[in-house]
Each structure stands twice: as structure tokens, then as C-alpha cells.
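Continuing the series of single-chain predictions for the mutant panel. This is the parent chain; the variants come on the following pages.
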Amino acid sequence: MIEHIVLLNEYSYNGMLGARQRKKENMNLEKGNIVKNLISTEPVEVTSIQDFGSDVSIEYTGVNSGENGDVILSKEELITLALVSQKGSFGFSGDSNKFTLYTEAERIKSAFQFDTLFAVNYSIVDTLPHQVETVYKYLLPLPRIRGTQKK
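Parent structure:
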């Protein structure tokens, strides 16, 4: 069993121009790599690689489903694989604005658990202390009166 195989990838991404260029480039396919396009449903982690001359046997585990499987591909078909990441490595190349928006949304979503007056504190309205006390201590604990009457 071999630990890695060098693939010849026809395309590389040129970050400066923002376009794919046709260029020969080596990609190391190793045990533990996470690749896509091996199966159509999800990215997979490569668990073993065996070289059979003109063909390569790749055993994999699905990243999302955890399902195991194996595929035999010719070395020409290996150029369709796209390396996502190495297991255990982190890529911080995402959109920072989307990350900030997501973290702010999660903070707002869970803030009420820690601050019972969150709606009042987060709003633009400046409330007086007696108004907050009236609403939270007297009005909200009352049973609902409106909407229970039948017409």
C-alpha cells in the first residue's frame, strides 16, 4: 500500500487574475487528504491508495455521512479530483464579512438566554426604569386577555 501518489493537474487557479489557467501542476494525493469529485454526493477523506500500474484504487470515507467505499480510477481520471484540504489542517481563506455576519447572528440568537432585557437593551428606544419594570414585572406575567374572546 502506498502513502501518496503525485497527480498531474491540468488547471491551476490564478488568484491575481481571478481566472483558471491551463497549466500543468503536480498535486500530491495522500492518505488523509479530503478531496471532492471522487463521488458525486460529498467530499471524502482518502483512507488508502493502491497503485495498479495504469489504475489506482482509492478507499475513502465520506466526510458528512461517514460511509466507506472504494473506487478504481485510471490515472487520467485522477486529474478531475479537487483537493479540499488535509485532514487536521485549517484553511482560513473564507469571506471574513460572511463570518462576521454569522457570528453576530448567532450572538443575537442566543443573547436572550443571558440578558432577559435584551430586546429593550438592543433597541434604539431609550426606556425609563419604571417602564421596564412595568412591562417585565407586571404586564408580561399576566395571562393573555386579548385573542381569547370569541366573536
